[in-house]
Inverse folding.
């Protein structure tokens, strides 16, 4: 599996990740070598093997729908890059 | 002096009134100031809080309320959230981040009376095996400052090896406790998945991440694990299982212990000298009455490929929270929302983190999900089943922690694949969720070599027992690098 510069740009867009133009080729080549490594997986027949998402076979724990935590908006917004009136500010999305 | 003592010895000295927590804390803070310039193992030193907590610990002891860890200083890996203290995870993305809350591990250790000396350096977001991907610069190995300390818990390992802290916390996603413990000549334990809470431990690959102790001896690890483990309702994968006293079985004799040696861990790629050191350790166990059995873990060679699908996939999803909106780095003058996301992330993350986000995004994208992620999960089950079968025949599995001793700074940093392969013996243990340890077993070219001991799920007590008995017969674990004595 070989990735080209255009593939890297597409994946970087999906990941919302800015990659400098001069580094695109480098990523294409290192990603290709990682995918080559990963391709060793294909040598094994895994028909009928149940995928293992987690090391422990346990069910999701549920709890009663009760309020346990208090609102700490001011505390959490102290570390935000930009806030106003208790809201997080980002560039205008709708004109 | 105090720094040549183990955590257990310091605990006994505090109990006997031979030293106060303030004296110990001052001693280690001074050592950090005097020596950390040589190895760069700390990102933040929490002097003021440490001295205040130490005074409180001394008062608590005077009042007769002390436990075994009351007043003992320890360093935390900078992956654990610490309230009001910078928590960077080794990244520019979180360079300005002061956590509004404590990780459960931090909180539990604080309740046990542990004093935090500071936060240790690490590979950025725990992605690396050499500590060279840190935004705060590479950590150096105290045994040879040209060499890496291993990673990702490289700062924790180096600080303990240089005796700048009696012990430290670490996290292990693919070997990040065991490989640096091996490279730095200390004892590290990665517990069973679900044993220690992941709450407040910045997530890398959630189905693999697990926190554990890094210290000078198995006895020290047992004391720390007592404080760290236990059920936590705030972590949805924390297991509701009682915590035994991990120090209780340390002195059990090993006669009749069945040790499995996987033939795949002693084949191609393993350095001869490391093989010799490991074989010598096995002889030591034979002399203690253990039975040795050759076993097979036939899918070992697939562990690295499977890991480099599962870990990047989970990382790309976990790291999507870093978007420049609510906390962390934000770029200057974003043109629109997409520009804000892209540039904040592009500027905040380093190369290796970007690489893994890209691999994970690709593996999870439409049309590739089955070929990569599902396939990897199927192989993950086969790797895990190998261990299940092995543990029907043996009590513990032993082998090398890493295929070689610490390599030089810069030696592998341009070649991700050869870097990834340095975790070849540790990764499968994470995929299967098993506990594993690395124990100092000797030297090769004057650099430490670690013996890896792998146990069945929740068999930490046995691992600690097996490691402790070895440390009663050998003194590899008490060696200190000349420059830091």
């Amino acid at each position: 599996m070989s990735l080209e510069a255009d593939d890297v740009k597409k994946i970087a867009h999906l990941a919302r990740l800015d990659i400098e133009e001069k580094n695109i080729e480098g990523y294409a080549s290192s990603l290709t070598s990682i995918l080559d490594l990963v391709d060793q997986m294909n040598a094994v027949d895994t028909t009928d093997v149940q995928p293992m998402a987690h090391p422990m076979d346990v069910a999701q724990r549920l709890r009663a729908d009760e309020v346990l935590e208090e609102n700490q908006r001011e505390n959490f917004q102290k570390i935000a890059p930009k806030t106003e009136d208790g809201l997080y500010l980002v560039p205008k999305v709708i004109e | 002096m105090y720094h040549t003592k183990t955590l257990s010895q310091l605990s006994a000295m505090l109990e006997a009134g031979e030293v106060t927590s303030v004296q110990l804390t001052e001693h280690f803070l001074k050592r950090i100031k005097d020596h950390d310039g040589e190895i760069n193992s700390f990102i933040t030193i929490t002097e003021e809080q440490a001295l205040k907590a130490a005074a409180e610990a001394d008062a608590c002891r005077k009042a007769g309320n002390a436990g075994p860890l009351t007043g003992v200083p320890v360093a935390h890996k900078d992956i654990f959230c610490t309230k009001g203290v910078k928590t960077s995870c080794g990244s520019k993305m979180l360079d300005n981040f002061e956590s509004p809350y404590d990780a459960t591990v931090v909180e539990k250790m604080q309740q046990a009376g542990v004093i935090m000396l500071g936060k240790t350096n690490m590979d950025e977001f725990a992605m690396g095996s050499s500590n060279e991907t840190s935004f705060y610069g590479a950590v150096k190995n105290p045994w040879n400052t040209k060499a890496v300390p291993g990673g990702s818990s490289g700062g924790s390992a180096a600080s303990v090896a240089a005796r700048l802290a009696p012990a430290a916390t670490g996290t292990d996603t693919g070997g990040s406790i065991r490989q640096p413990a091996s490279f730095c000549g200390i004892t590290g334990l990665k517990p069973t998945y679900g044993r220690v809470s992941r709450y407040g431990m910045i997530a890398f690959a959630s189905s693999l991440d697990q926190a554990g102790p890094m210290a000078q001896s198995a006895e020290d690890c047992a004391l720390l694990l007592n404080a760290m483990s236990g059920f936590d309702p705030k972590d949805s994968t924390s297991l509701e299982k009682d915590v035994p006293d991990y120090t209780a079985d340390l002195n059990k004799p090993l006669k009749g212990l069945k040790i499995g040696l996987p033939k795949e861990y002693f084949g191609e790629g393993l350095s001869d000298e490391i093989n010799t050191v490991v074989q010598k350790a096995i002889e030591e166990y034979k002399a203690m009455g253990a039975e040795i059995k050759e076993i097979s873990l036939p899918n070992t060679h697939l562990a690295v490929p499977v890991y480099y699908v599962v870990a990047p996939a989970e990382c790309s999803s976990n790291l999507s929270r870093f978007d420049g909106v609510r906390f962390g780095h934000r770029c200057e003058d974003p043109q629109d929302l997409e520009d804000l996301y892209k540039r904040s992330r592009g500027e905040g993350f380093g190369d290796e983190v970007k690489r893994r986000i890209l691999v994970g995004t690709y593996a999870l994208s439409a049309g590739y999900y089955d070929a990569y992620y599902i396939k990897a999960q199927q192989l993950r089950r086969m790797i895990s089943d190998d261990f299940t079968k092995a543990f029907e025949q043996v009590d513990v599995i032993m082998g090398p922690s890493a295929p070689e001793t610490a390599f030089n700074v810069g030696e592998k940093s341009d070649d991700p694949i050869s870097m990834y392969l340095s975790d070849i013996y540790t990764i499968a243990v994470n995929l299967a969720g098993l506990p594993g340890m690395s124990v100092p077993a000797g030297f090769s070219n004057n650099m430490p070599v670690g013996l890896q001991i792998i146990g069945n799920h929740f068999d930490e007590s046995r691992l600690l027992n097996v490691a402790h008995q070895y440390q009663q017969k050998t003194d590899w674990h008490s060696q200190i690098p000349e420059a830091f004595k």
